[in-house]
Amino acid sequence: MNFQTIFNQKFPQVEALAPGRVNLLGEHTDYNDGFVLPTAIPQQTVVQIGLSDDRMYHFYSENLDERVDMVEESFKSGEMQEEYARYIFGCIQVLKEVGYTISPINLYVKSSVPLGSGLSSSAALEVATIRGIRQLFNLPIDDVEIAQFAQKAEIQYAHVQCGIMDQMASSLADTEHMLFLDTRTLERRVLPLPEGAKIVVIDSGVPRTLAGSGYNERRAECEQAAQLLGVKALRDITDVSLVETLPEPLRRRARHVVTENNRVLEALQNVASLEQFGELMNASHASLRDDYEVSVPALDILVDILQKTPGVFGARLTGAGFGGATVALVAAGEEKNIAEKVLEQYNHAGYTGNILVGA
Ligand code: GLA
Predict the structure, then answer these.
(1) Active site residue 166
(2) Confidence band for 307, pLDDT divided at 50, 70 and 90
(3) N- or C-end of the chain: fewer Cβ atoms within 10 A?
């Protein structure tokens, strides 16, 4: 299948790409106005777009082999079941809401970003879609605005109260650098990945769905904690002892956010060695597991195997949690060896993992 056979149109008028991301440090901090440190992964989402010659929008996902043909009204009446199409149509809608005219299009999407592993396949789809639409209709929007529109589409049309990390990473990061982002001000710094190390990402094989998970619940708990502490967002607390006055489970949730923000800042300012960076990642996992409670047994086992493997500086779950993937920082040149060895042990423990980056 390709654009031509699906839409019976000779060529797409534009093609746009966007990568998935893996977050090294700063988990569940973005919707608390905090700090994050993601990098792009090599896997990308590609969209090809042409103008539709009827009054309908036509979308096709190569990965899912799903076609959606629709007029605008059918989306408004909530008829659209196909999740990938919601993201695409959500992007179109948010652009229309700010006054751009987006006439009906044919959009073909294919992606090598794994779905449901916490590597932001949805952000890659949103960013690639808006990039393609920007090009096709010559819209005067920059890469930060692309991320902002993409986040809005996810919140309003996929109903996930996400922060802006994934969309900013997909829109602005590359695979050679980490993107330090202050999610309150959107100030950012592009830094080289730690020298002498490579990234290994392994999928736990336990799928996760954001909207169905406790993600929105965690977000609400953080907002409640901030309110009780009298601050705009948990980002405004840097002294972790201040959270001790909160009732449980808000105390633990807030403790994670405050310590995680501090870990990102420490990685930025005080890290002299790969070992130190790795320790921050290990501490992040413990905090996500014990205080934030977004890990699952499979992730804990996989992280534990990684952390015990020589050549691994640090490892943690990455993304929202509740399943999905782990990220590890390992000695450069050793990534394939390490990933395969770890996977063997993990599979031996009764799980079915999958190396996503580093093989
Ligand atoms: C998901 C969300 C992000 C962020 C992470 C957790 O990926 O989309 O905004 O909150 O979870 O760090």
Answers:
(1) yes
(2) very high
(3) N
